[in-house]
Structure formats: C-alpha cells, structure tokens
Amino acid sequence: MLMARRHRENHLVARIGWLRAAVLGANDGIVSTASLIVGVAAAAAGPSDVLIAGVAALVAGAMSMAAGEYVSVSSQADTEAADLARERGELATQPRFEREELARIYMDRGLETGLAHQVADQLMAKDALGAHARDELGISEVTAARPVQAALTSAVTFSVGAALPLLAVVAAPQALIIPAVSATSLVCLAALGAVGARAGGANVWKAMARVTFWGILALAVTAGIGRLFGTVV
Questions:
Q1: Are 185 and 205 in contact (CB under 8 A)?
Q2: Distance (Å, rounded) from C-alpha 119 to C-alpha 15?
Q3: Residues whose CB falls within 8 Å of the CB of residue 1, separated by 6 or more in sequence, listed in order
Q4: Are 140 and 11 in contact (CB under 8 A)?
Q5: Where are the alpha helices (DSSP H) in the chain?
Q6: How many CA atoms lie within 13 A of 118 on its CB side?
Q7: How far apart are the C-alpha atoms of 40 and 225, rounded to whole Å?
Q8: Residue 139 · residue 84 · CB < 8 Å
Q9: Which of 58, 25, 65 is nearest to 166 (CA)?
Q10: What tens-digit pLDDT sequence spans the chain (233 residues)?
Q11: Long-range contact pairs involving 185-190 (C-beta distance under 8 Å, separation at least 24)
Q12: 193: which residues sit within 8 A by CB, 6+ positions away?
C-alpha cells in the first residue's frame, strides 16, 4: 500500500506584509529622490547642491517612511488587539452565542447546519479565540500587523532605492545629470515592478508599466517646476 505524500504549498499571500512595505519603500525612495534631484538640477543648481539635496532626501525620506509605517501598522495592531480582547470577553460570557455565530459563518460558506455546528464545536474546543479571530475577524498569522518589521523594511528599502539616483549623480558629468538620473531611475523602477510582481505572483508587464508611468510623471512635473523657478530666480 502506497502512503500518500504530504503536499506542502507555499502560498504567496504569506509575503504580503513585508512585500508591500518593501515595494512601497523602494519605489518611494527612487521616485522621490530622483524627482528632487531632477528638479534641483533643472533649476541650474551645481553638482554639489544637487548631491546634498539628494542625500538629505534619502535621510529624511527613510526616517519618514519608517515612522509612517510604524504608526500606521501600529494603529492596525491596536485595532486587532482591541477586537481580540472584545472577542475573548464574549467567549467567556456568551459561549453559546459565540458558538452559534461561528456555526452561522460556516453555514453561510456552504456547510450543512449539523456539520457547521460540529466544525464550530471542534475548532472552539481546540482554540476558540483563534477560530473566531480567523473566521469572524479575518485575523491570522499571515495577515497580522507587525509594526517593527514594516518600519525597518520600509526604511531599508527606501534607502536602497534612493541610493540609486544618487549614484547616477556621482557618476554622470554635470551636463548629463538630468538624463542620467532619469534613465537610471526609470530602469530601476521597471526592474522593481518586475521583481515585486514576480514575488507576489502578479502580471510582470502590467506592474512594470504602472511604476514606470508614475515615475515618468513625477520626474516630468518636478523638472518642469525646477526649470520654471530656476528661470524666475
């Protein structure tokens, strides 16, 4: 008799937490820093001024991303904790109602009444709070908020993304700073879109087109504003 082999699946949804923060951080690092560099360069600033502006954008942006992600995800974590505390209290004071509530969820998903109650009973006997957190509140180990992870991921990836247009500033002659930074940034954005799409199992070309479009728009707007104000001044 052949024994069935255990089938292990690696679902991409497990990557949502860090992948979102990583892609957002790197994308923002490239776009915001490159746009600022192009805008300052378009205003006829010298290479040293452009480089200083770029470095300042990297440091300030990385700190802003870390703080923003931490505050945002902490708010989500606080909400999850409050919901779990409320659910824990209801399980202690109204177990019969909570059992019916859980069974009703399974019936709405297609289980017969008797089977839904059996499933609810067995899951609640093992981990009542976990069953309600997952099936009633939509909170699981995969989707749970992790503020520190999100903050660190955003800060690091923002810094890496911002460093790419800065390297173009250092390597390019003054006359070619704007085209060099623009080209470098758009290539990096397209690559980032491809990597993020592949890691998340999405359409690669659609992701590349999306991030490249917004990159071009940001660069064009800031270059226009920089040139306008540089001319006025």
A1: no
A2: 29
A3: none
A4: no
A5: 16-42, 47-93, 95-108, 113-135, 147-171, 177-200, 204-232
A6: 5
A7: 9
A8: yes
A9: 58
A10: 444 455 455 544 444 555 666 777 888 899 999 999 998 888 877 888 889 999 999 999 999 988 988 898 888 888 888 888 988 898 888 888 888 888 999 998 888 888 989 988 898 888 888 888 888 887 766 556 678 888 888 889 899 999 999 999 988 888 888 999 999 999 999 988 888 777 767 788 888 888 899 889 988 898 888 888 764 44
A11: 185/30, 185/31, 185/34, 185/215, 185/219, 186/212, 186/215, 186/216, 186/219, 188/30, 188/161, 188/164, 189/27, 189/30, 189/31, 189/215
A12: 204, 207, 208, 209, 210, 211, 212
The answer to whether the beta carbons of residues 188 and 59 sit under 8 Å apart is no
The token pair that represents 214 in the structure block: 């917004």
Torsion of CA 184, 187, 189, 192, to 10 degrees: -120
Contact 180, 171 (CB under 8 A): yes
Environment class of 68 (CB within 10 Å of its CB; exposed 0-12, middle 13-18, buried 19+): middle
